[in-house]
Amino acid sequence: MLHPQQVRKVAIVGYNRIPFARQNTYYAEASNQDMMVAALNGLIERYRLQGLLLGEVAGGAVIKHSSEFNLMRESVLGTSLSPFTPCCDIQQACDTGIEAAIYIANKIALGQIECGIAGGVDSTSNVPLMLGDKLRNILLRARRAKTTGAKLKEFLKIRLKDLTPIAPMNIEPRTGLSMGGHTEYTANYYNISREEQDAFALQSHQKMAAAYEKGFFQDMLTPYKGLERDNNMRADSSMEKLAKLKPAFNKTSGTLTAGNSSPLTDGASCLLLATEAWAKEQGLPVLAYITFAELAAIEYVEQKQQLLLAPVYATSRMLKKAGLTLQDFDYYEIHEAFAAQVLATLKIWESIDLSKAFGYEALGRIDRNKLNVNGSSLAAGHPFAATGGRVLATMAKLLHEKGAGRGFISVCAAGGQGITVILEK
C-alpha cells in the first residue's frame, strides 16, 4: 500500500467490444465466456498484447451459470495473454463494467499493478435454467439417501409439473416489479410524457446511426458471429413508428414501450487501463484519465419511483469532491436504461424543489447537445455488465479526439444503485 501523495494517474489506453445483439438473435447460443474471449482477443490483437503478463483482469456478468464461477480467469486462459495473468470476478448489476474499471484503476493508482483489463459480459439468451424448489429438494434428498430404495422413494415424489424449468426473471426481489415496472412509477411521478420519451429514444438511434456512418466505432468493435454493428439500432426509426408501439409494462396506461426502453441484449466489452509509463513503453497513447468516481444507493422499496435514481446522489457527492459544477463538462454519457429514467434525472438536477427532496441543491441544466452525442443504450442495447465498458470507451475516445476536456458518466443499476465517473484529457 502506498501513501496518498504517491497515488498515480490512471489512464484508459485501449478498448474493444463485440457488437451488441438483441436477445435470441446472433449470439443466442454463445456463452458469456465465448463472448468475453472474443472481446478480449480483439483487444489483444489491436494493442499487440499477445503473451504479455498483465497486472490483473477483472470483470463479470450479471446472469451467470453456476459453472461460470471463475468466468474472467477462464476467459483469459482462452486468449493469448500470459497464463500467469491473475483474474477476478466482480458483479454489481448494471454497474459491473464500471466497477471493474474502478477496481483495476485503484490498484494501478496505489502501485499494486502497472496495467490491467476491466471487462463485462452478459447473455440474456443463453441463460441458466433453474429447477423449482420442490424438484431441487427431492433431488438433493435422493442424493443424500444411502440406499437404492430410499433414492427411489424420493424420485417417486416427482410430478410432471415439477419438471418445468424456471428462467431468470428481470425483477426486483423486494418489490416483485421489473425495472420497467419501477420506471413506469418514475415517469408518472416526474410527469415524463410518452412523447418526450419517444423523442429522446429517436435521437439516440439517429445519433448512433450517424456515428456509425462517420466511422466513429470502426476501431472500437471486433465483428463476431457475422455481426458488425449493434443490431438493435434502427436508423429508419421515426416518431410515427414509435407512437404505434404498445405499452410494454403497464399495459393499460403505461408510457414505456419497446421503443423507449433498452432491450434485453447480449454482448461483451473490455478496457485496457495503465500508468502513463506503461503506456509509453507499449507505444500506446493516453486516451483519457479516470479522475473521480462515486457509488451510491437509494431506497426504492417504499419509494418505487426511485429505483434508477441513485446517480442523483452519486453526482452531487462526486462533484463536491471534484470541486466542479455539472456544467463543467464537454460531454455527458448517461446510460439509457429507459428514456424516462434519463429525463427524470435531468429534471431533478434542474429543479430546486425536486433536488431538495434528495437533500441536495439543484445542479442546473446541462447542454443537451453534449449528451450521448453518439447515441447510447436505447440504440446500442444493454448487455448488463458490458454497458459500462461501452460508455467508458465512448467517452475516452471523444476526449481523445477533442484533444482536451472533461467527461461526465452516469450509470444506474438494479437494486437501487448507481455510479458516476469523471474522465479527463
The CATH superfamily name of the largest domain is: Thiolase/Chalcone synthase
Largest β sheet strand count, sense and barrel closure: 10 strands, mixed
Along the chain, the helix and strand elements come as EEHEHEHEHHHHHEHEHEHHHHEE
Strand residue percentage: 15-25%
Description:
This protein has 425 residues and is an alpha/beta fold. The chain has 3 domains: 4-128 and 265-282, Thiolase/Chalcone synthase (Peroxisomal Thiolase, Chain A, domain 1), CATH 3.40.47.10; 133-163, no CATH class; 179-216 and 292-424, 3-Layer(aba) Sandwich (Peroxisomal Thiolase, Chain A, domain 1). The chain has helices spanning 32-47, 71-77, 96-109, 133-144, 148-155, 179-189, 194-213, 239-243, 276-282, 310-322, 339-350, 352-356, 377-380, 387-402, and strands spanning 10-17, 21-22, 56-60, 87-89, 115-122, 265-274, 288-297, 331-334, 406-413, 417-424. Helix 2 (71-77) links the parallel strand 3 and strand 4 (87-89). The longest helix is centred in the middle third of the chain and has 20 residues, at 194-213. The model has no long low-confidence stretch (mean pLDDT 96).
